[in-house]
Write a structure and sequence with these properties.
The chain has two domains: 8-79, no CATH class; 93-127. It is flat. Strand 1 and strand 2 form a beta hairpin. By secondary structure, the protein is mainly alpha-helical. It has three helices and two strands. A two-stranded antiparallel sheet has the order 1-2.
Length: 130
């Protein structure tokens, strides 16, 4: 194993890039070999690997390396319904400097609320519209 203590920071960064490229190359090589092995095993049993994966609902998965089924919904599977958008809640707290800005009290606090509280103000006092 290499002794990394003698490497400068730029040398370590360069080495890191080289190592990551090699890891990516070997991972891809390993995936390709595994796919080939699965296809051969399926063929030995008179099956088509792509059809097998589609039957169990795997060919339509994102990132699937099986090309023929990629992007297609598996037979018998329903597509997910789109997420329902929630209505925006009305403001409960108001910016004392700019009456146009309000916050419902849900979600992340706006910067003006944080600033107000850091300067000693109380959240309850922001409930009155200026």
């Amino acid at each position: 194993m290499m002794d990394l203590k003698n490497f400068s920071l730029p040398e370590l960064k360069k080495l890191s890039v080289v190592v990551q490229k090699e890891l990516d190359r070997r991972t891809l090589q390993s995936k390709k070999a595994l796919i080939k092995q699965v296809q051969q095993m399926a063929a030995e049993h008179g099956l088509d690997a792509d059809e097998m994966l589609a039957e169990v609902g795997l060919s339509g998965r994102e990132g699937s390396s099986v090309k023929s089924g990629a992007g297609k919904a598996a037979p018998g599977r329903k597509k997910k319904a789109p997420a329902v958008k929630k209505e925006k809640l009305p403001p409960v707290y108001w910016n004392p400097v700019n009456a146009q800005e309000g916050w419902s009290g849900h979600g992340r606090r706006p910067s003006w609320v944080i600033t107000y509280l850091e300067n000693g103000g109380e959240l309850e006092s922001l409930k009155k519209r200026p």
